[in-house]
Design goal:
about 80 residues; globular; 5 helices; mainly alpha
């Protein structure tokens, strides 16, 4: 789900996830899930960018999104992505 700020993206993805039993994936949640001591190597790259005061590059975010949608809950239920790009 993409769109301009304050257009209802969060509300629509929340509604979709509730009505269709989809996993709601938010970029902020992915970063929380995969940063820290996570064993996935791309997590280290994202951590380095954030520690140095930068932002996580899109290619790294894409890798994290791909890793997230490969988890069992997304495979079993489907998913909706909010907040990217």
């Amino acid at each position: 789900m993409i769109g301009k700020s304050h257009t209802g993206k969060s509300g629509v993805t929340k509604l979709l996830s509730e009505k269709l039993n989809l996993v709601r994936i938010k970029i902020s949640s992915i970063l929380e899930d995969f940063l820290g001591d996570h064993p996935y190597t791309v997590s280290d790259i994202a951590n380095d960018h954030l520690r140095n005061g930068g932002t996580v590059p899109d290619d790294v975010l894409v890798s994290l999104i791909i890793k997230r949608i490969q988890l069992a809950d997304c495979i079993d239920n489907g998913w909706v992505l909010e907040g990217f790009p």
